[in-house]
Design goal:
The complex is a heterodimer of chains A (327) and B (325). Chain A is mostly helical. Helices cover 75% and strands 3% of the residues of chain A. In chain A, helix 3 (76-91) runs parallel beside helix 5 (127-146) and helix 4 (98-123) runs antiparallel to helix 5. The two termini of chain A are 17 Å apart. With 325 residues, chain B is mainly α. Chain B is 72% helix and 1% strand. Chain B has helices at residues 11-35, 44-69, 77-92, 99-123, 128-146, 160-163, 171-189, 191-201, 203-208, 213-239, 246-249, 252-262, 274-294, 298-317; strands spanning 165-166, 169-170. A two-stranded antiparallel ribbon of chain B has the order 1-2. In chain B, a hairpin with a 2-residue loop joins strand 1 and strand 2 (169-170). The radius of gyration of chain B is 19 Å and the shape is globular. The N and C termini of chain B lie close together (8 Å). The chains are: A mainly alpha (327), B mainly alpha (325). Chains A and B meet through helix 4, helix 5, helix 9, helix 11 and helix 13 of A and helix 5, helix 12 and helix 14 of B.
């Protein structure tokens, strides 16, 4: 361990570089978008971009908590699907019940997160397997409950969370409710990692669980809390997705891998020990800007997967290369 | 991440897990067959059917065992299976003369993909999850974009691989058995196998001992891709023509990892083997067959499957000391 006076600089420096990587990629991609469609520079369209990117950013923030502690959460997409389907079944067209149902959704999400965390922390099942198991189970549960098809509608007061936009707002022109939810969630996630002792514990556990344990860190609790935060983010994202895309049985498909990819593009290190909330935020914004850009170019839907794969490898390759050059 | 010290005989613990798992699977299958009165399932036909359920997943999982043993992982196998199935049926176009060229070209593709995966992981230093997720996405995207031009069907003679057999034993089961034995032989009895365990158990130690660890990792990735290719060819023979989604719909990437870990191979590498993996595949196959006999609905089946994956790994992971992530 390095002497005390050196700790802040040696801890902060890689984090700052990581932030810059995600931010730079995002700015470059957004410049590309603005070049093709200059009106994306208007505050209104930027707000709309944020609204559509909100679920992915929120998921990435949750996933980051798990990645920092050295794990993965593959169950996020399934939780988001469950949220969308469960909301339509439980609300059943009655707007009065919306807020109570949202409460129930969070309870379900927290339950999934607790199961993930407990299985990883106490049964010593690697998180990739544990959350794969919950992914299969939660997906099956959602489909069994809904009968395998989307049914029911979401009332307007639920959907507003994802699609309501206030017009004529001073300064920004229009302000989507989803952007406020996004800002609130990111602020909370930032506070959790930087305003409380939890952030340091998560990094310590991810970097070296044995050393963290010997130093008195509650390793199991830190791990479990990370999975709960991740599940809560999946519920929040699911509510927004239900808001603007409506009910569908594959609402959350593939989101877990996108969230992991976002964190990595932003500079978080898989298997833990390095990353900040900005890795997740800018990584997710970069990924979403990439989707938007490919859409504008008019690339076939299918090839977007390929480009995403190449970007993923390139982003991680670049960070490995930077790391090698530093040492 | 903590790593256990490699034992000189890593197969001893693995074998007992394999025997236990296989026993449980067969026991479950027999009990369900008796309880539902489908005793015909316990005859030759039923057993052959059960074993045939193992082939596609079994082939991928053997390859996956190689990469996991070396401390890596391969998420690109699902996309590669689809690519091989589509490519094989496109090249053959129902013409038996094209069977051999099709197989050669498909395995050539797998070799290339394996080399790329291995190079990214071993020489590029890129985390294997991200590297193979990336190559998988690339393959999947190119495949979905070009599928319109890649229609076709395999030759009728090629379907013998899936439907023909000798003495009532389908060729596909014989293929799985032969390749399993070959893989087990390589891992237990050859220098390459020993190096795989060494690199997976302690990469720094292996390097200091003079092993070119990068080459071993690269070779393991090539093996995994070739086994995925074999699985893709088998699926093409069974389904007559490939679609760009058969790999993804079968969740062969995550399921092959799950059965490998259920079979006692640890994700950190260096410990485990083919026998356990096959027992894991047998568990999945007998669960599938059992659930079908019980008439459990497809979604509930998925719920149970998820729970069993976790439980099966928890049974032997819970005793491990130290931390996992």
């Amino acid at each position: 361990m390095s002497p005390v006076p050196q700790t802040p600089s040696s801890l902060r420096r890689p984090a700052r570089i990581a932030v810059n990587a995600g931010l730079v990629i995002f700015l470059a991609l957004y410049a590309g978008i603005a070049f093709l469609q200059p009106n994306y520079l208007e505050p209104g369209l930027f707000m709309n971009f944020l609204r559509r990117a909100a679920p992915l950013v929120i998921l990435a923030c949750g996933q980051l908590y798990v990645i920092l502690t050295g794990g993965f959460d593959l169950s996020m997409g399934a939780v988001a699907t469950l949220v969308v389907l469960a909301a339509s079944i439980l609300i059943n067209g009655d707007p009065e019940t919306t807020w109570a149902v949202i409460g129930v959704l969070y309870v379900m999400g927290i339950a999934v997160g607790l199961v993930n965390g407990l299985v990883v922390a106490f049964f010593k099942v690697p998180s990739i397997i544990a959350t794969l198991g919950t992914m299969l189970s939660v997906n099956g549960l959602a489909l069994a409950w809904s009968g395998g098809a989307a049914r029911g509608d979401l009332p307007d007061n639920f959907r507003n969370l994802g699609r309501l936009v206030w017009r004529e707002v001073p300064l920004v022109g229009s302000l989507p409710l989803a952007a406020i939810v996004l800002a609130g969630f990111v602020a909370l996630a930032w506070w959790g990692l930087n305003g409380t002792v939890y952030g340091k514990r998560a990094l310590a556990v991810g970097d070296n669980p044995r050393a963290a344990e010997l130093a008195g860190t509650p390793v199991a609790a830190t791990r479990i809390l990370a999975f709960v935060v991740s599940a809560v983010s999946a519920v929040t994202a699911g509510i927004l997705i239900g808001g603007f895309s409506g009910v569908s049985v594959n609402a959350g498909e593939g989101l877990e891998l996108q969230a992991i990819a976002a964190c990595v593009i932003g500079g978080a290190q898989l298997l833990g020990g390095r990353g900040s909330i900005w890795s997740a935020v800018f990584g997710a914004l970069s990924l979403f800007a990439l989707f938007t850009l490919l859409n504008l170019i008019g690339l076939p839907q299918a090839l977007r997967d390929s480009i995403q794969g190449l970007i993923l490898i390139a982003a991680v390759g670049a960070s490995v290369w930077r790391g090698r050059r530093r040492t | 991440m903590t790593r256990d010290i490699v034992k000189p005989k890593p197969t001893a613990a693995g074998l007992s897990i394999a025997v236990l798992l296989a026993g449980l699977s067969i026991g479950f299958f027999i009990v369900v067959a008796l309880a539902t009165g489908e005793t015909a399932q316990l005859g030759g036909q039923g057993i052959v059917g059960l074993l045939q359920r193992m082939v596609a997943l079994g082939l991928v999982a053997i390859g996956q065992t190689f990469v996991i043993l070396v401390g890596s992982i391969d998420l690109s196998v699902a996309a590669l299976i689809s690519a091989v199935a589509v490519l094989a049926s496109h090249i053959m176009q129902g013409d038996p003369a094209m069977i051999l060229p099709a197989i050669v070209i498909c395995l050539g593709l797998c070799l290339a993909v394996g080399l790329v995966n291995g190079a990214l992981v071993a020489y590029g230093g890129i985390n294997p999850l991200i590297a193979t997720l990336g190559t998988g996405l690339v393959i999947q995207g190119v495949l979905a974009a070009s599928f319109g031009m890649l229609q076709g069907a395999v030759a009728r003679e090629f379907q013998v691989v899936a439907y023909g057999g000798v003495l009532g034993i389908p060729y596909s089961i014989l293929l799985l058995a032969a390749l399993s034995l070959a893989a087990a032989f390589v891992l237990d009895r050859t220098l390459f196998g020993a190096r795989i365990y060494a690199v997976g158990g302690n990469p720094d130690g292996a390097r200091l001992a003079g092993i070119r660890t990068e080459r071993v990792t690269l070779s393991a990735h090539v093996v995994a891709s070739l086994f995925a290719g074999a699985s893709g060819l088998y699926l093409a023979a069974r389904l007559q023509s490939g679609t760009p989604w058969i790999g993804r719909d079968g969740i062969y990437d995550l399921e092959s990892i799950a059965v490998t870990v259920i079979g006692g191979t640890i994700l950190a590498g260096g410990k485990g083997g083919v026998a356990g993996t096959l027992a894991g595949v047998l568990l999945f196959a007998s669960l599938d067959a059992g659930f079908n006999m019980l008439g459990i609905d497809a979604f509930l089946k998925q719920v149970l499957r998820g729970a069993i994956v976790v439980a099966a790994v928890a049974i032997h992971a819970v005793r491990s000391k130290g931390h996992v992530a």
